[in-house]
Protein 1
Amino acid sequence: MKTDLTITNVASKLPAVVPPLEREVARGGKLAVWTSVRQERWEGELDVEGEIPLWLSDTYLRNGPGLWHLGDYSFRHLFDGYATLVCLYFENGQLVMGHRQIESEAYKAAKKSNKFCYREFSEVPKHDNFLSYMGELANMFSGASLTDNANTGVVRLGDGRVVCLTETIKGSIVVDPNTLDTVGKFEYSDSLGGLIHSAHPIVTESEFLTLLPDLVNPGGEPSPGRVHSFPVTEHYVIVPEMPLRYCAQNLLKAEPTPLYKFQWHPESKGFMHAMCKASGYIVASVEVPLFVTFHFINAYEEKDEDGRVIGVIADCCEHYADTTFLDNLRLNNLRTYTGNDVLPDARVGRFKIPFDGSPKGELVSALNPDEHGRGMDMCSVNPAFLGKKYRYAYACGAERPCNFPNTLTKIDLVEGKAKNWYNEGAVPSEPFFVARPCATEEDDGVVISMISDKNGEGYALISDGTTFEEIARVKFPYGLPYGLHGAWVPKN
C-alpha cells in the first residue's frame, strides 16, 4: 500500500469547521454536497463493498471548489470555493482516500486575514476607501488581483508533473499526487503573456495545447467569447466562438450580474474555427447557430473515400444557447431546492464543420436528449480515442424534476442510446473512464465517480465501463463537497 497516504483516522485530530448556514443545511441531510469540506485534510484506507479489479492500480485525482465560507460569511457561487483536491489510490483491490486544500496565494491570504484578498468568480475584495478601490482596479488590469485559486481541473503533464488549473493563467499550481502537497506555481516557458486561458488544456505525452482569449484586441468583436474548453483532432485545433463574451463593465462591478463577468451578444453570432496544428493557419471558419457550452466532449476528422479530410465533427455539452444555468449555480439556489424542475435543458450538441469553403456549419443533437433526461454535462471518453472517431462517452445527465445533473449516463453515439445510473437524492460528480490495460474495445474499463448521497454521506462508485453496472463502492468517512474534474495519474 502506498505509505505516504496510508494514515488512518486523521479526521479525529482536526475539528470540523462549518459556518452557521451550512450547519443548518448539513443537518437537513439533503444538501450536504453544497457545504464546505469538513476539515482541511483527511487520509486513510477505506473498506470496499464489492470487488475492485486488480488491474486498477494507480491514482485518480479530482479537483473542485470545496471551501465556501470565510468565518460566518458564505460565498455566493459554486465556482467561488477554494480548491479541494481529492485522491483515490487503488492497489491490489484496495483503496486509500485523501483530500487536502490546495494552498494557493488566494487561499492562504484569505485564511490569514479572514477576508477575500483576490477576485474570485463572483466575489471581490471589500475596500475600506476609494483609494484602495482604485488600487484594486489597477491590480485587476495588471492581473495582480486575479485569483490563483486553482479549483477547476487537474492534468498530468508528459514529464509526470501534476498541475491544477483554473481560467487565470496564474492559477496553474503544481501538486504532489502522492502527498497532495502544493509544490508551487507552474511556470509557462513561452512569452505569449495574457491573463486568462482555457481551464481545460489538451494534454498528451507530447503536447500541451491551450487557448488564450485576447482581451485587448478582440478582432473587431465586442470582446472574446468565453473558451472554457475546446476539442482537437489529429491535425486540427477546433476554436469555438460563442456569443457569451467577456465584459469589462461587469468585471468592474462589486455586485455580480446574472452573467457575472460575461455578457450575451447574440448579434455577434456563433462560429467554429479549425486551425491546422502544423501551420497555425485557419483552414475553416463557419457560422453556426447560437450556442452555449462549457465542456466539449471530443472531435474527429471526416474523410472521403480517398482519405482526404473533408470536415470535422465536434461534440459538446450544449445548453440550447441558454445562459441561465450559470446563475442557477449560485449556492443559495443549490441549497434551497424545493422540488421544482429548474435544470435548464442540455444535449450532446454536434457541430459539423465543412472544409469545402462553405460559410456555414451545422449544430444538431447527436442523440435524442430524452435518452439522458435532457441534462448533459461533465463528460469523459476513453483517452485513447481523443481526437479520433469514437462511439462512447460518459456524462452526468438528469432524472427530472431536479435542479442539477443527478445521474450518471453512458452514451452510445452509434446506437443513439444512453444507459443511466440514478440514486434518488444523490449528486454524482464527473464520471471518469479508465481503460483496462491492453483493452481492445473502446469501453473496456471502469468508470469512477464520487457520489454525494442524500443523507449527507459520500462514496466512490466504480462501474463496469461496458455494462455500466456497479462493481464496487467505497464509503467515505463523511460526505465531500461537489467536485469538478479529474485526472488519472499512473505510477510511471
Protein 2
Amino acid sequence: PLDNPTPEQVAAAEKIQDAYRSYSSRKQALKSIATLRKRFLTAKSNFTLPTTLDYETPSGDGTSEDSQQHTTVTVDRSAALPSPSLSAVDEHDDPFKHVPRLAYTPTNAALHGYEEELNRILSALDAIDSRGDAGVRAARRELARMVEREAERVERWR
C-alpha cells in the first residue's frame, strides 16, 4: 500500500470502485428480477381457476354489511366478463355499484391468493433500483408488463 497516493492514483482507485459498485448493483438487480420471474412463472403455472366462484349479493333488508349472502356461479374459463363502460360516468354515479363483488369465501381462496401474489411480485419489482441502468430497467419493465397482463386476465373474474 502506498502511504501517499498521488491525485491520479486516488482518481483511478475511485473510478475502479465506482465501476465495481455499478457492476455489483446491476448483477444484484438482475438476479432479483430473475428470482421474481421464476416466482411469477411458478405461481402462474400452479394457479387453476376454480370451477365455481362465490359472489356477494345483498341480503334484501340492506341494514348492514354483515348481512351479505353469496351466490355461487359456475365458471366458463374461456369467457371474458364485460366491464361496465366508463364513458358516461359522472362523479356521483359508481359504474360498479350493480356489479356483484367476489366474496371472501373458501371457494375463492385460490383466486384471492393468486391476485395477492401477483401484487406482491409487482411491489417487489418496484423496490428494485435500476440506478440508471437501461438493461435493469428493461428487464424490470418486461416482467412488470407480464405480471400486469396476468393480473388483468385474472381480474375479469372479480
